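anyone seen this seq b4? input:
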Amino acid sequence: MAFDYSLDFPNINFRQHPELYRVGKGEQGVLLVEPYKSEILPFWRFKNPDIARESSEKIYDIFLAYLEQDDFIGADMARKFLQMGYTRARRYANHKSGRKYKKTEPDSAEKKEILPYEVDPIKAESAAIFKVKWIEAKTNEKYQALLAKHKQMYELD
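predicted toks r here
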C-alpha cells in the first residue's frame, strides 16, 4: 500500500496510531512521522566519515531499541534514516552542491539537466558507512518479521 501523504502528520502520534502508518517505498515519510522523526533526526549527520560512523551507529542502536520494544514503526523510521544517510551522502559525493539537477525557471518546460559529477571521496566514504548499517537494518530478522506482521494487520490490499 502506498504511503499516504494526505494524513494530518503534525497532529498524529504514530506510536499511538500504528494503524495509520504505511511503509511506502524507500524513505517516504522519513521527515513526517512523529514522534519518531523528532527522536531520530537530531542524530542524523554525514558530513565526514567520523561523523557518519557515529551517526549511523547511534541510529542503528535506536533501531535495535525500537525492535526490543516491538515498535515496528520506530524501527522502520530508523531504517529510513539510515537509508537517507546513504542516499544524501551519495548525492553530495556525486554533486558538491547536493543538487542533482541544474536550476531552471519554475514554469520552464525544459527537460531537467543533470549536473556533472564531481566525486567527493569523503562523502562517498560517509555514504558507504551508512549503507552498511542500512543493509544490516533492512535484513534484520526481527525487523523483517515485524514488517510482515504490520503489513498483514494494517496494509490490506
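The chain is about 50% helix and 0% strand. The helical segments are 36-40, 49-68, 72-94, 121-138, 141-154. kinda curious what u guys think
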